Amino acid sequence: DAKTTQPPSMDCAEGRAANLPCNHSTISGNEYVYWYRQIHSQGPQYIIHGLKNNETNEMASLIITEDRKSSTLILPHATLRDTAVYYCIPSTAQKLVFGQGTRLTINP
Amino acid sequence: SAVISQKPSRDICQRGTSLTIQCQVDSQVTMMFWYRQQPGQSLTLIATANQGSEATYESGFVIDKFPISRPNLTFSTLTVSNMSPEDSSIYLCSACAGWGMNTEAFFGQGTRLTVV
């Protein structure tokens, strides 16, 4: 499993875009990049995943660099409900190995 | 999507006893997993629950301590045996509805276990 590096914490103002970086320089060619988040006292929630193309869904956008060694999760208009721990997880299967993640705080 | 229900949601148990946690999914799923989240920590994978066969355990976890059953495609149990205060954690069930990489995992709300 590829190792990941994420900033331990980030702050963002409500209504602004939140950009969460992740380094996964040891990612293998068949590993997707998954993003999950965990809101306090809840189970993790799937956000988005991608292999090498940028992806967008109703929750977020995922930008993966061409060399696939890093990615950025973008929450376009952050709300207070987006306050959570965000996990970037390279994986070939649904057996997810969680790192420490980024604790994102959205401030009013 | 899949909805996962865990029972109990929380429990306080005496050391030396065992607790069985149930995980029920509202649709047939291919893979089920059990995780542990110790206070203030990230999630750690305990094992993959295999239907009709023995679970596959991750390093540091053994069947005698965490026996797991999965009798069908929608149900699994995790037992925490001979509990000690160090077993106080949140235990989470996870399930996937598809094969391969192009699928997502769903999680239950967890079982908060306190061992006294």
General description of the model:
The complex is a heterodimer of chains A (108) and B (116). In chain A, 0% of the residues lie in helices and 46% in strands. Chain A has strands at 9-13, 18-23, 32-38, 45-50, 55-56, 61-64, 70-75, 84-91, 102-107. In chain A, the strands form two sheets. A five-stranded mixed beta sheet of chain A has the order 1-9-8-3-4, with no helix packed on it. In chain A, strands 2-7-6-5 form a four-stranded antiparallel beta sheet, with no helix packed on it. In chain A, a hairpin with a 6-residue loop joins strand 3 and strand 4. The termini of chain A are far apart. The mean pLDDT of chain A is 94. By secondary structure, chain B is an all-beta fold. Chain B has no helices and eleven strands. Chain B has strands spanning 4-7, 10-13, 19-25, 31-37, 43-49, 56-57, 68-72, 75-80, 89-96, 105-107, 111-115. In chain B, the strands form two sheets. In chain B, strands 2, 4, 5, 6, 9, 10 and 11 form a seven-stranded mixed beta sheet that branches. In chain B, a hairpin with a 6-residue loop joins strand 5 (43-49) and strand 6. Chain B starts with a strand and ends with a strand. The chains are: A mainly beta (108), B mainly beta (116). Chains A and B meet through strand 3, strand 4 and strand 8 of A and strand 4, strand 5, strand 9 and strand 10 of B.
Radius of gyration of chain B, whole Å = 13 Å
Question: What percent of residues of chain A are in strands?
Answer: over 45%
Question: What level of helicity do the residues of chain A show?
Answer: under 10%
What's the number of extended β-strand segments of chain B? 11
Describe the main β-sheet of chain B briefly: 7 strands, mixed
Q: Biggest interface, and residues per chain?
A: A-B, 26 and 23 residues
Unreliable spans of chain A are none
Structural class of chain A: mainly beta
Order of helices and strands of chain B: EEEEEEEEEEE
Q: CA-to-CA gap between the ends of chain A? A: 37 Å
Mean pLDDT of chain B: 93
Task: Determine the number of helices of chain B (DSSP H or I, runs of at least 4 residues).
Answer: 0
